[in-house]
Amino acid sequence: MNQDHSLQTAYGFEASPAVRNRVLRNTYWLLALSMVPTVLGAWIGVSTGIMSAMSGGLGAIVFLVGAFGFMFAIEKTKHSSTGVAVLLGFTFFMGLFLSRMLGAVLGLSNGAGLVMMAFAGTGAIFFGMASLSSIIKRDLSAMGKWLFIGAIMLLIAGVANIFLQSSALMITISVLAIGIFSAFILHDLKRVQDGLETNYISATLGVYLSLYNVFQSLLALFGIFGGSRDE
User: Fold this and answer.
1) Residue 5: exposure state from Cβ atoms within 10 A (0-12, 13-18, ≥19)
2) Cα 16 versus chain centre, distance
3) pLDDT for 101-127, tens place per residue?
4) φ and ψ of 78, to 5 deg
């Protein structure tokens, strides 16, 4: 059924309110479920230090190849239950790579508090954007092109900073990422509510990536400006 409605949307028809509500509800449920393997992957990464070798250029290559490979597989399987399993595998993978930053922040004397602040900040942004998406009546589809360009520029700057190791550039990237990916959350949820996205797996993938980037960026900023070490 999702596939049929997706084809209809591509030809300019809108999904029915019942379909929109079902896709939105399934997106929220799958998004909540995706947090479980993310936390599990992060916990394993922090506990074992398995990702300590994944630094610099090697880590970037493994991450980019793995992430884009998973996203390609998710798009190929999104019309079946296999897509859910692949998406959950992807979120576990993302949790593993998040563990390096988490481990660094948790090594600070107030690290646990900083992680909770980043989590709370991400939750506040999500609920704020979700609320806005249900209030705004205007079509926000045109935002997508500009947000995508912004995300690509952030990716290029992030890869460059692996070699430059500039704190100023890292702060700039983190601030811009919070703004761009917060807008992505609004854009993606509005597409579901407008009937322009009728596959909940695709919708979940988009919102998950935005939340992941917002959390990671907040964590980086809190670690830089709010971190303290034991003397």
Assistant:
1) buried
2) 28
3) 999 899 888 889 999 999 999 999 999
4) -70, -15
Distance CA 49, CA 103 (A): 8
CA distance 200 to 82: 13
Distance CA(95)–CA(13), nearest Å, equals: 37
Rounded CA-CA distance 2/198 in Å is 6
Could you report the per-residue pLDDT of 181-203, keeping only the tens digit for each?
999 999 999 999 998 899 999 99
The 3 state secondary structure assigned to 28-79 is HHHHHHHHHHHHHHHHHHHHHCCCCCCCHHHHHHHHHHHHHHHHHHHHHHCC
Count CB atoms within 10 A of the CB of residue 58: 11
Instruction: Scan for tokens 């939750």, then name that residue.
Output: 123
**Tokens coding 86:** 């692949």
Q: Distance (Å, rounded) from C-alpha 145 to C-alpha 153? A: 13
Compute the mean pLDDT over every residue in the chain, rounded to the nearest whole number: 88
Give dist(CA 169, CA 154) in Å, integer: 10
Answer with the residue of higher pLDDT: 176 or 228. Answer: 176
CB 220 within 8 A of CB 170: yes
Q: How far apart are CA 141 and CA 196, in angstroms?
A: 9
Rounded distance between C-alpha atoms, residue 14 and residue 174, angstroms: 36
CA pair distance 210, 123, nearest whole angstrom: 12
